[in-house]
């Protein structure tokens, strides 16, 4: 898609940016990268960014203190740009602003995205939304803080340049961003590898309690509300657990679920090989990518695990 940002912004005075609920590194990176670019390069525009609470580690990205976590009453934006979000529901609290905007634009890389905005730049093969934002910007005009945000997003969604979604173009984007004078290692250390004591404790617990099913091709682990309360952990402390589970030798699919405050289960799936977990997530009303997807489900953990492993088994047997 040969999109020009300047064309989309033509005639606009007010622009809102929004990402998905429980924002991850790519969501924060892509939103903040584009937000800072608009602030710096289009100062005449009134630009706001809306996100749910940003995990502490990602707050090292500049201007995250300007992020709005509540929407104003009766505000209509000329343009709403939706980033890293595969469907309107996942916008969460900012969805009414999306619905009310005069024009909408979506930049995303989820294979489950059904082009729900007015203008859509959906590239399922792209490593990350941050890489797509990079491609939309004038390279000369990318400042160091913008580069830091986009680099964080790309590094997170590629598992630090290791997942199969990492393409030569991804590495070229990362190289260009490095030339903006960022400390890439520091960003990765502080936002990706560094874990709090609580995060390590709950990770340890999840690994210890994990079980192998489906002829040891699938690994499953659950954390319930009681355990989260015991360790003092919130949902953002559980990021990375499912990737660690996937590293188990011989396993093809990893499934991690945790109980939310509303007594639902948030399920994360990761695949190493032939199983398309986005199809399974879609079947249960969620979405994502071929090798990383998720959804929410009600019922006992036992039932959720049974229902999901049944779908995984169907694919493993195919
Ligand atoms: P995670 O397991 O880390 O929450 O998410 C893995 C991938 O699946 C991410 O790209 C995320 O956006 C997507 N995903 C996770 N949960 C949901 C969901 O409930 N609905 C949709 N549409 N996508 C999800
Ligand atoms: Mn992403």
Automatic annotation (TrEMBL):
One Pfam entry name: DHHA1
Domain called DHHA1: residue spans: 217-302
Residues that span the membrane, as ranges: none
Domain DDH intervals: 15-154
Taxonomy, superkingdom: Bacteria
Protein name as annotated: Bifunctional oligoribonuclease/PAP phosphatase NrnA
Source organism of the structure: Faecalicatena faecalis
């Amino acid at each position: 898609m040969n999109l020009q940002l300047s064309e989309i912004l033509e005639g606009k005075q007010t622009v809102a940016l929004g990402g998905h609920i429980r924002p991850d590194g790519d969501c924060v990176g892509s939103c903040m990268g584009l937000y800072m670019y608009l602030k710096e390069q289009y100062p005449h525009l009134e630009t706001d960014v809306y996100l749910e609470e940003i995990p502490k580690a990602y707050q090292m990205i500049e201007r995250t203190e300007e992020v709005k976590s509540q929407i104003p009453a009766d505000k209509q934006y000329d343009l709403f740009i939706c980033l890293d979000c595969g469907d309107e529901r996942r916008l969460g609290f900012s969805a009414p602003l999306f619905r009310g905007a005069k024009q909408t634009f979506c930049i995303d890389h989820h294979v489950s995205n059904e082009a729900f905005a007015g203008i859509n730049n959906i590239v399922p093969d792209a490593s990350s939304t941050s890489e797509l934002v990079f491609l939309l910007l004038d390279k000369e005009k990318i400042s160091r803080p913008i580069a830091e945000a986009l680099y964080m997003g790309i590094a997170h969604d590629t598992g630090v340049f290791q997942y199969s979604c990492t393409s030569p173009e991804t590495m070229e984007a990362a190289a260009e961003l490095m030339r903006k004078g960022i400390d890439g290692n520091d960003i990765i250390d502080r936002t990706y590898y560094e874990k709090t004591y609580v995060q390590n404790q709950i990770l340890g617990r999840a690994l210890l309690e994990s079980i192998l099913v489906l002829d040891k091709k699938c690994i499953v682990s659950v954390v319930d509300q009681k355990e989260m309360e015991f360790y003092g952990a919130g949902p953002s402390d559980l990021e990375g657990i499912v990737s660690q589970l996937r590293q188990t030798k011989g396993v093809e699919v990893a499934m991690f679920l945790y109980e939310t405050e509303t007594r639902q289960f948030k399920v994360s799936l990761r695949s190493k090989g032939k199983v398309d977990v986005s199809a399974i997530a879609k079947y249960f009303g969620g979405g994502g990518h071929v090798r990383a997807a998720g959804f929410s489900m009600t019922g006992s953990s036992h039932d959720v695990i049974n229902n999901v492993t049944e779908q995984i088994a169907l694919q493993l047997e195919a």
